[in-house]
Amino acid sequence: MRKAAAAEIDFGGIIVFSLSTGDIENVIITPTGRVHQGRITDEMAAYFTELVWLYRNNGNSLIFSYSLPSSADAIRRGVASAAGKELPMSAYDALGNSSRMNNLLDHMHSRYPSIIAGANSVFRVFNPVTWLNSHAASVRVEVRFPDGTRLEVVYSYEKNKWERVPNSAKDAHNNSIPETREEFAEGGYQEYEFRGHPDTDLIGFINWATRHGITITGPMMDRVIACTSVEGHIRCSSFRKW
Questions:
Q1: pLDDT tens by residue, 21-43
Q2: pLDDT digits (tens, 9 = 90+) for 74-109
Q3: Which of 26, 32, 91, 147 is deepest in the core (most CB within 10 A)?
């Protein structure tokens, strides 16, 4: 743990922790290179205890799952839609409609004023952004839409609100949903498979590509699409993959 601290800072104080082992240490490095052990505050210890409990009771993960109601009527009866706000019914809808995406984030705020933690809250005075590898100390929620698509949201401690996690959207076939035109063929080549149900995945992808100015060529019966990028030109076509 002290080696990890030394890899992050030259001198100063930093919190190093391991969710898997439940260990936490306040490491202080002096300008001369000497290492001391600092005090873990009661607030920090309480937060960390709950974070470890969440991690271990959620299959060693801080990503929780929340499924949106499968019908608009059910959503309208929900807490967040009391003001008549329309929620997205797919990840494509959320990415393509900023108003509905914002409604979804408001929905998360009213549904989870803190976060899933039994009867306890993990949002305490302590700010986990100050931790080593603060990303690992963030509790996320994977929002699952009625069509099987999904994306992740995370609570921002700096802004005190929920935010969408960039590039986390996936369809029911576990294909990553591109957020920009360039990402359809990120790295020069990307494949997308849509074998099996639901058919909405393939339809959603075709419509999403069209929205980004990309025409998909070839018969769709094989349900595998390859996207290539040559000198900035994106081309997508179906092909048979054996």
A1: 888 888 899 999 898 999 988 87
A2: 555 454 454 568 899 999 999 999 999 999 998 887
A3: 91
Task: Give CA–CA dist 229/198, Å, rounded.
Answer: 28
Beta strands in the chain (DSSP E): 12-18, 23-29, 35-38, 63-67, 140-144, 150-156, 161-164, 189-193, 216-217, 224-230, 233-238
Instruction: Point out which residues pair with 12 in neighbouring strands.
Output: 29
Q: How many CB atoms lie within 10 A of CB 242?
A: 3
Chain position carrying tokens 């018969």:
219
The string of DSSP letters for 68-132 reads PPSSHHHHHTSSGGGG-PPPPSSHHHHHH-HHHHHHHHHHHHHH-SS-SBTB-----SS-GGGST
Q: What is the pTM of this model?
A: 0.75
